[in-house]
Amino acid sequence: MAITHRLPTVDHMTDEALERNVIDELASDPKIDSDGIAVSAKSGIVTLTAVAEWRYQREDAEFIAANVLGVIDGENDVDILSPIPDAGEVTIPSKKSWNAAPSSTPTTSR
Fold it and tell me: Residue 53 sits in which domain range?
């Protein structure tokens, strides 16, 4: 007796099943807080909505969702909480903080 497996295709997968599959895949990545990501699907197009702490979390979520069977395209509406500062926001420490005060070392006489 042969065992056959039927994998769902885009034609046979409901939007709800696709959403569940994307959520399950996101939950399997320890770097992503999948509880904070809303997933919606319509005809194979998946939308991720959330606020991520770091850019890599946004990109990882998009990569994972894009590679789920049945996803045709997607929208990544994940906002970044900690954006990379532009040059106008970067402050350079003063010279004083770079040059530590000389430490006094005890001298021994011979």
Answer: 15-82
pLDDT of the chain, 110 residues: tens digit per residue? 566 555 555 567 899 999 999 999 999 999 888 889 999 999 999 999 999 888 889 999 999 999 999 999 999 999 988 766 666 665 655 544 444 455 555 555 55
Q: Looking at residue 43, which CATH number applies to its domain? A: 3.30.1340.30
Distances (CA, A) of 87 to 53, 80, 90: 20, 18, 5
**73: β partners:** 45
Q: Which residues, in sequence order, are CB contacts of 77 under 8 Å at separation 6+?
A: 47, 48, 49, 50
- Residue 54 domain flag: yes
Report d(CA 106, CA 59) in Å as an integer: 55
Measured between alpha carbons, how far is 58 from 56 in angstroms, rounded to an integer? 5
Number of domains in the chain: 1
* Pair 85, 55: CB distance under 8 Å: no
